[in-house]
Amino acid sequence: MDQIALTRIAEALERMSPAPLETPDFNAASAFVWHVGPERLEPVEAVNRVDLDLLVGINRSRDTLLENTRRFAQGFAANNALLWGARGMGKSSLVKAVHGALAGDHPELKLVELQREDLPSVARLLNHLRGSQHRFILFCDDLSFSHDDQHYKSLKAVLDGGIEGRPENVVFYATSNRRHLMPRDMIENERSSAINPSEAVEEKVSLSDRFGLWLGFHPCDQDEYLAMIEGYCAAYGIEADAEDLRAEAIEWQATRGARSGRVAWQFFTDLAGRHGVALR
Questions:
Q1: What transmembrane ranges does the database entry give (predicted)?
Q2: How, if at all, do strands 31-35 and 40-44 pair?
């Protein structure tokens, strides 16, 4: 076999087995996104988040997650957390806001976002984080599983850590619309068709039990919805007639058919635009 053929074979093997990921410079940013193909931790220059004080109507969840994260940042024991419940009520915003509130006093605290589709690579990601002097919040947004989805098995590597155990410097936060991370009809189908119904769903349902913290988010009432908008107006210096603001906000949520923190922010974005205010 000539040299050219050997060179081509060697290049093909390198493409099939890329070089191991070098340990990134974790001082380059306070947040990173995990990518695969090729695997890399990409720094995020500016995290898209709101201030913690602007999250209204979720005081208990806010205080619980903040204290859990503070203990973790200080090097003490902390729980993995599942934030579940209604859409648009600030689950992912709370995770990012809590990190932002603590990162100033604890620069070693880093936020690493992981996509659900990339869960099979999580063991390799943990190997890059293990042993670092930094502390990492591994964050997966909108986590859920369908009936034929096997990604939940990879998640156990984060929650339980296998024989090595979860790295001491990593805690896992996830958000989901589902308390048990799987649709109710899937649970019922498993129970009705399995030889042993209780065992059929135990493995998947018990996945949520591996989170030490369950923080529930529920639809807001009208007073909380209006308080969110008033808080945004105060934070960005927008002055408006109280009655007009109330009427416009109620009309906005009526057209959307729902009230939530997301709807409140969407109304405020429109209001800020009409007042010539840029949101940064």
A1: none
A2: antiparallel
Is 90 exposed, middle or buried, given 0-12, 13-18 or 19+ CB atoms closer than 10 A? buried
Q: Which residue has the tokens 């009432």?
A: 221
C-beta separation of 136 from 107 below 8 A: no
Cα–Cα distance between 73 and 53 in angstroms, integer?
20
d(CA 194, CA 200): 6
The whole-model pTM stands at 0.82
Distance CA 87, CA 220 (A): 11
φ, ψ dihedrals at 32, nearest 5°: -140, 155
Output the tens digit of pLDDT for each of the chain's 280 residues.
Answer: 566 666 666 565 555 555 555 667 899 899 999 999 888 999 999 999 989 999 988 999 999 999 999 999 999 999 999 999 888 899 999 999 999 999 999 999 999 999 988 888 888 898 889 889 999 999 999 887 765 556 666 677 677 766 666 789 999 999 988 776 655 555 445 445 544 555 555 555 667 778 899 999 998 999 999 999 999 999 999 999 999 999 999 999 999 888 999 999 999 999 999 999 998 7
Domain segments of the chain: what residues? Answer: 26-217, 222-274
Please tell me the CATH code under which domain 26-217 is placed. Answer: 3.40.50.300
How far apart are the C-alpha atoms of 122 and 166, rounded to whole Å?
A: 11
